[in-house]
Design goal:
Order of helices and strands: HHHHHHHEHHEHH
Distance between the termini: 22 Å
Helix content: 55-70%
Shape: globular
Radius of gyration: 16 Å
Strand order of the largest sheet: 1-2
Number of strands: 2
Length: 192
C-alpha cells in the first residue's frame, strides 16, 4: 500500500507539472499560488500513512479526515519557520478533507449540509505507521527524477517523517470555512 501511495502521489504531481503553463495563471487569478496546489496534491492522501490504513483497516477513520489533520499539523510547523502562510494551511487542509467528496455527499444526503464538516471520530488519536520514512524517501527521489521536487516539498516530507500521531480536532472542520472560493477552486484542480 505504501508503494501505491508513492506512485499515486508522484503521478498526481507529475500530471500537474505537465499542466503548469495552463493553470498557474488561473490559480493566481483566484488568489492561489502554484505551490499551494502542489502541496495539496502531495498531502491529499497522507492519511494513508496511518497505522490503521496500512494494516488494512481502511474504514476505521476515513483517510481524508486523517490527511486533513496531517496537512494541518505538518504545514503549521512550516508556518512557524515562515515557509507557508496561515491561509494556505487551512485551504490545503480543507481540500484534503473534501477530496473524498462522494463520502461527504453521501453523508449530506443522509443528514444535511452541516454534515460536511463533521468528523466521524472527533478527538481520536491516529498513529502514523512504522516505516514511513522509506516511502517518503522513495517519493522524494521519484519527484526528483520527474522534475517535481523542490525545497518546499522536501521540507514537507521531512516534517511528515517526524510525525508519530495526530489527534482529529473538530475545530478544524467548520462548514462555513469549507465554502470559500479558494478551497473550491483548489479542490477542483486536485480532483483533476
Amino acid at each position: 500500500q505504501k508503494g501505491c501511495w508513492v506512485a499515486h502521489t508522484a503521478l498526481c504531481i507529475f500530471e500537474a507539472l505537465q499542466l503548469k503553463e495552463r493553470i498557474a495563471s488561473l490559480l493566481e487569478r483566484k488568489g492561489l499560488k502554484w505551490e499551494t496546489l502542489i502541496l495539496a496534491l502531495l498531502l491529499h492522501d497522507s492519511g494513508k500513512l496511518s497505522e490503521f490504513y496500512v494494516s488494512g483497516n481502511v474504514r476505521e477513520v476515513p483517510h481524508n479526515e486523517v490527511s486533513a489533520q496531517i496537512s494541518y499539523e505538518v504545514l503549521s510547523r512550516l508556518r512557524n519557520q515562515n515557509v507557508i502562510e496561515s491561509s494556505d494551511i487551512l485551504t490545503i487542509s480543507q481540500v484534503c478533507f473534501l477530496h473524498m467528496e462522494y463520502y461527504i455527499w453521501r453523508q449530506i444526503d443522509r443528514e444535511s449540509l452541516t454534515a460536511i464538516g463533521q468528523l466521524t471520530s472527533p478527538g481520536k488519536v491516529v498513529k502514523i505507521a512504522e516505516g514511513v520514512k522509506e516511502p517518503l524517501t522513495n517519493l522524494r527521489e521519484c519527484l526528483e527524477v520527474l522534475g517535481g521536487n523542490s525545497g518546499l516539498i522536501s521540507a514537507v516530507l521531512s516534517e511528515l517523517s517526524k510525525l508519530r500521531e495526530i489527534r482529529l480536532i473538530p475545530e478544524l472542520y467548520t462548514p462555513q470555512s469549507y465554502i470559500s472560493p479558494r478551497t473550491i477552486v483548489l479542490h477542483w484542480f486536485v480532483l483533476l
